[in-house]
Model the fold of this input.
Amino acid sequence: MSHVDLTVSQPRVAQAIHAQKLLEENRGIGEESKTILNSFRNTFAHFVEPISRQRADLGLKFILLKAEWEADTFLSSSITQICMHPAYQKIIGMGPSAIPLILAEMQRAPGHWFWALRAVSGVDLTSPEDRGNISRMTEAWLSWGREGGYLAE
Done:
């Protein structure tokens, strides 16, 4: 395992841990403080631990991230903006474990998952003549997923 230099962020992490301990020690906190504490915990987990290493169910994370991505990019016509959205990038950050989730979603409702699949799998299945043809691109990925065991036959 390689050593990661965290010297820049260690003071902030130490401060965050100290603040969390202070909040937890104060048993007489009100509802607003509890809300702030829960928000802090979620933010802390998000920035300290990548989504692929958090313990929650990956399927649930995928659904939540997909919902956020779709809500924020619904009216966008820019593929770059759609694919660079933070939630979409977090799905890519889930790594190969996201492949069956993405393919299952493509079976249900084809969409702009090609960038993510290419990034996570390292494979580009889109032939030059099929570029822009969502249905043909989708079928190519679904066939690949069945052949690779990511989808049931």
User: Anything to note?
Assistant: Residues 1-10 have pLDDT under 50 and may be disordered. The chain has two domains: 10-48, 58-147. The two ends are 38 Å apart (CA to CA). Residues 58-147 form one domain.
